Structure formats: structure tokens, C-alpha cells
């Protein structure tokens, strides 16, 4: 009975594996394919994507297109308009708009929406959340300033720094006495430098926006801080 039972379990295991492979076709469905599928079926179910900002295009301050690279190296094009955002995201819209810096990892939720090009789909964003900091000191300083001024949730930047909101708030407010505008900027620069050096390695970070990698390969070009 022992060998027969073992054989039966083996057959069941093989069948389960085959069924699983058959149902997925042995391939992982990319987010861009999910997006197009929902558009083709007029499915307005919420879709969630996590990715790194690789580009941003603004048409005024009320319409933004941004490209996000997922961990699968897939590209998700997102369209951001204030009138389609949740109340919380609308509150921080200006801050999130300025946070769309190359390398910033975000979680975006929305629905499939058509474009002017037939067959193409974009994610019409309803909500946004910052998950991880860009690997560039200058961009980190911008995010720290936005968090300090209350333009983006302090808790999101704290989580990205692996700190509690209280710890980060204390560091942002802990400045020398008799500070001038110059010394305040220098203080924030040094804090950004400290955080930048402590960032853990991220195997999914896009090579196209990795300043460390670009510098190491001899193609470093210092990026100008966005004025948007």
C-alpha cells in the first residue's frame, strides 16, 4: 500500500503542476498586457502597478504623462489628471507632481484608458503613493523639502528611508541655530547625502536612471534639479 500511495501522490502532484502551467501558459502576464486587455473588454476594474519613474511629460499643470518601469522591465504609461484622483491624492497633487523624478518608485492605482493611438492604453491614475527614493542625492533633497513643507505625506518618505515619521521629522527640524537660507540648504543637502549613502541595493532599479552605474561606466552627466 505504501508504494501505491506514493505513486498516487506523485500523479496528483504532476497533474496539479500541469494544470497550473496550462492556465498561465507558462508565462507571467505583464502589466501592459493586463492594461490592454481591460481596455479591449471595457473593464473598469481598478489596476495596481508598482514601478520606477523613467520619464515625465507635462501639458500644463493639470495633465501629466509619466512612464513607470516595473520589476519585470515592463513599461506602464500613466495619465494623471486632478479631477480623477482620490481626495487624499488630490490634496497632495502638486507635491506628487513634483515627486515624479527619475528613479522614484511609486504605487499607482487606476483604470485602463484609451489614447489617440488605436490599440494603445494608459493607466488613468486615481491614487499615488511613494514607495522608494530615487538613487540620486539631488532628487532625494527635493523629496525631503516637499515632505518638510507638507506637500507630500511625511510617512511615505519615512518608510522609504526605513525610519519612523517621528524620526524623520526630528531630523528635518534639527537644524543649527541662527540658520540662513544658505545654511539651511546645506543642512538639507547633507541629510540627503546621508540618506543616499544608506539606501539598500535594489536589483530592480532601472539602469537607465541609475546615476551610480552611469558614473561607473564613464557616462555620468549631472542632472539639473527639476524646477517644476
List keywords for this structure.
alpha+beta; 228 residues; 5 strands; 5-stranded mixed β-barrel; 20% strand; globular
Description:
- The chain is α+β, with helices and mostly antiparallel strands and 228 residues long.
- The chain has helices spanning 2-24, 31-40, 87-91, 93-99, 137-148, 154-160, 165-173, 181-198, 211-216, and strands spanning 47-58, 64-69, 75-80, 105-114, 121-132.
- Strands 1-2-3-5-4 form a five-stranded mixed barrel.
- β1 (47-58) and β2 form a beta hairpin.
- α5 (137-148) packs across α8 and α6 (154-160) crosses α7 (165-173).
- Mean pLDDT is 82; it is low at 1-24 and 219-228.
Question: Care to count the β-strands?
Answer: 5
Rg is 22 Å
Spatial strand sequence of the major β-sheet:
1-2-3-5-4
Report the sheet with the most strands, covering strand number, pairing sense and barrel closure. Answer: 5 strands, mixed, barrel
What is the structure about, briefly put?
The chain has 228 residues and is α+β, with helices and mostly antiparallel strands.
Present the secondary structure layout:
Layout (H helix, E strand, L loop, with lengths): L1 H23 L6 H10 L6 E12 L5 E6 L5 E6 L6 H5 L1 H7 L5 E10 L6 E12 L4 H12 L5 H7 L4 H9 L7 H18 L12 H6 L12
Parallel strand pairs: 3-5
Antiparallel strand pairs: 1-2, 1-4, 2-3, 4-5
Helix pairs in contact: 5-8, 6-7
Amino acid at each position: 500500500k505504501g508504494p501505491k500511495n506514493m505513486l498516487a501522490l506523485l500523479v496528483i502532484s504532476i497533474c496539479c503542476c500541469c494544470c497550473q502551467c496550462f492556465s498561465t501558459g507558462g508565462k507571467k502576464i505583464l502589466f501592459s498586457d493586463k492594461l490592454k486587455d481591460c481596455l479591449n473588454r471595457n473593464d473598469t476594474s481598478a489596476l495596481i502597478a508598482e514601478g520606477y519613474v523613467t520619464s515625465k511629460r507635462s501639458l500644463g499643470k493639470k495633465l501629466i504623462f509619466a512612464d513607470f518601469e516595473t520589476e519585470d522591465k515592463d513599461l506602464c504609461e500613466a495619465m494623471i489628471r486632478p479631477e480623477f484622483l482620490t481626495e487624499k491624492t488630490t490634496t497632495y497633487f502638486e507635491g506628487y507632481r513634483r515627486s515624479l523624478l527619475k528613479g522614484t518608485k511609486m504605487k499607482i492605482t487606476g483604470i485602463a484608458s484609451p489614447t489617440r493611438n488605436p490599440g494603445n492604453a494608459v493607466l488613468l491614475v486615481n491614487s499615488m503613493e511613494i514607495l522608494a527614493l530615487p538613487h540620486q542625492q539631488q532628487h532625494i533633497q527635493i523629496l525631503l523639502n516637499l515632505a518638510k513643507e507638507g506637500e507630500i505625506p511625511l510617512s511615505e518618505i519615512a518608510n522609504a528611508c526605513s525610519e519612523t515619521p517621528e524620526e524623520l521629522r526630528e531630523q528635518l527640524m534639527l537644524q543649527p541655530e541662527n540658520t540662513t537660507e544658505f545654511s539651511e540648504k546645506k543642512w538639507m543637502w547633507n541629510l540627503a547625502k546621508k540618506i543616499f549613502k544608506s539606501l539598500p541595493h535594489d536589483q530592480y532599479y532601472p539602469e537607465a536612471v541609475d546615476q551610480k552605474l552611469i558614473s561607473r561606466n564613464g557616462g555620468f552627466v549631472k542632472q539639473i534639479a527639476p524646477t517644476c
